Amino acid sequence: MNFKRIEAIGNVAAGEAWDIIIIGGGATGLGIAVDAASRGYKTLLLEQYDFAKGTSSKSTKLVHGGVRYLANGDVKLVFSALKERGLIFKNAPHVSFVQSFVIPSYSFFSKMKFLIGLKLYDWMAGKLRIGKSSLLSKAQVQASLPKIKTERLQGGIRYYDGQFDDARLAINLAQTAAEQGATVLNYCQVVSIDKDAQGQVNGVQFIDSLSQKSYQVKGKALVNATGIFVDDILKMDTASHKNLVRPSQGAHIVIDKHFLGDRDALMIPETSDGRVLFGVPWHDKVLLGTTDTPLHAHQIEPRPLEEELDFILNTAKDYLQGAPTRADIKSIFAGLRPLAAPTHGDGDSTKEISRDHKLIKSPSGLVTITGGKWTTYRKMGEETVDLVAKHTDLPAKACQTTSLRLHGYSVEKRAGHWQVYGADYLHIAQLMEHDPRLAAKIHPDYDFRLAEVVWAVQNEMACRLEDFLARRIRLLLLDAQASLQAAPLVAQVMAEQLGKDQAWIDNELRDYQALVSKYLI
């Protein structure tokens, strides 16, 4: 694997023209890069922060068809997402898992309604079905969810869906794109779009924010895959552009697993305001969320609103005995979904807006993709590259990604967080074997090791302290305070690997402390 930032910058500095330049290194942009590179197109991806820094690392960690979308009648999206869920399980089994969900039922009618809907959900998955929905008695629900409140409980339904580690899958996509020949860069901010004499896009200018150097690159096609930031890029193309996207915030809290259990997830399909709430075991903790709050502005590090935290805790209190309080929260986080901006009617309603993606080709040739969800990242990549190839002089080539195994592919099961490294685990184990000092934990309460810091810098393009603590491992999301305690040691090891001085360490620790404040109550 050649996934070195210095070499990627060297590829850019060489000054060759690219077939496809992709702006945005979240799920969508990375999926496009894998698709384009695997077809043989010369591909460059530029991400202004770290890979999956935004929404793509702050999901509910579900690879799912979307039970809620089925209830809204969005059958086409559910069919597509269930197929894509199956392909993620086939192509990245090390970072995706089958998760059982229990829906508690408090009336016979609701029990039957959900059972029928979930049987349809199973059927729609076809050969890629991962489990069989079934009715549960009251006693079975209690056994599955020991903390569930039993007053008026009449039983429930168990169904199966997918779970994954979103930031780890993003890193694997970046590595896979590089293995297929793409040049992939984080911390490179596009500042302007170049056009030819006919007004057609033919390149971009960007700044490497780690070196402050500017670069100009030329390309046959330009793709805007920047999620909630798509309008910023579209305004570089057309100054009078009116916003396509309205951000909707999804907030989550993370608590200890004893509040729910560590096997079955809880799904509450109809909360007080009609939203869905999940309680999902994840990395030995439990994630509670999500909300769906329309916002008027976007930012890279949103913080859950007080009313969102209250909503999650109050809903949990309605269903769980000994429910968590604010004092029990280990971490809070929020992601912004790029939903279509409302054109009429209720501007604050997000429940009825389709989560399907939209592809737009501007008169200048700029291709923009917006919307969608993690589960369908591969399909979004395929459709985007198809559109690009159709409207440029690139040779037509078939999509390769339906059966392309992603970096780290392994069917071997490993304990704890080691599972998500897949085949790379053996390399990290070798680091610890060759230098036993690297087997030391970065925090006494968690099984993350110094060898992982070394690996992340050398092979996963971790450039800053938060890259490692938030996304290469997930400690910021699992326990924000513990991640702050681990930060000085991690910064020291990163500095050694990156050839940085004490001033760099001090600056990283200052920045990280400011970041952690957004994840603490």
UniProtKB/TrEMBL annotation:
Chain ranges of the Alpha-glycerophosphate oxidase C-terminal domain: 413-503
Domain of life: Bacteria
Domain FAD dependent oxidoreductase: 19-371
UniProt xrefs under Pfam families: DAO, DAO_C
Cofactor needs: FAD
Keywords attached to this entry: FAD, Flavoprotein, Glycerol metabolism, Oxidoreductase
EC number(s) on file: 1.-.-.-
Single Gene Ontology MF annotation: oxidoreductase activity
Homology family: Belongs to the FAD-dependent glycerol-3-phosphate dehydrogenase family.
Protein's UniProt name: Glycerol-3-phosphate dehydrogenase/oxidase
Organism for this UniProt entry: Sphingobacterium bambusae
